[in-house]
Amino acid sequence: MTRGSYEKIPRFVPMRGFEGGATARAFRPARGLPAAVAALALLGIGGLTAVHVVSALLGLPVKIVPYDQWARWASTTAWNDGRVLAVAGALALIGLVLILIAVVPGRGRMVALRTGDPDLVVGITRRTLARALRARANAVDGVRAAGARMRGWHADVSVRTDLRDTAALGDRVRAAVEDELAGLAPAHRVSLNVRVHGPS
């Protein structure tokens, strides 16, 4: 199966609670990379701690991390010291970034589409959705060539024509593309911008 043919196949997700905003969460990206980075960092810290504790219990302490030096520095440094505040600020910023990554939804590669079954969500890629809009614009009488691109929840459709009345053609293209969007029924509203390039 080729990559192009694969992208034309929608992805079906059985689900409940369609009206409760579940479609917006169905194709939300998993934030795999930030989660992996955080997990590896915690694994490294836990591993170092375990090595130091076990080696100390065995009477052969390993000095991979200079805990004694850090402890002396911490015991002799005031809380209002600039270095302490800088470290605390950096840790707080990292924590805030991780919280925002977990809470704020990212933009998924799939666009959720409504179906006649309230327990079923259909997802297509943004590229496939753009191709569908481009094909519909190309089918309008008077259009010589059309292009479409998805940017987030915004669709840009541009057409070229040999007609002089570009305004009327633009209205027809917009109506056709809006009809295509209505038929596909994205779960999230997609704004549309249509540009018509007439004969030079």
Explain this structure.
This protein is 50% helix and 19% strand. It is of the alpha+beta class and 200 residues long. The protein folds into two domains: 32-103, no CATH class; 110-197, Cation efflux protein, cytoplasmic domain (Alpha-Beta Plaits). The strands form two sheets. Strands 1-3-2 form a three-stranded antiparallel β-sheet. The protein has a three-stranded mixed β-sheet with strand order 4-5-6. Helix 6 packs across helix 7 (166-184). The relative contact order is 0.13. The model is unreliable at 1-20 (pLDDT under 50).
Q: What's the helical proportion of residues?
A: 40-55%
Query: What order do the strands of the largest sheet run in, or round the barrel if closed?
Result: 1-3-2
Order of helices and strands: HEHHHHEEHEEHE
Note the total helix count: 7
Task: Pick out the low-confidence regions.
Answer: 1-20
Keywords:
single chain; three-stranded mixed beta sheet; alpha+beta; disordered N terminus; 200 residues; Alpha-Beta Plaits; elongated; three-stranded antiparallel beta sheet
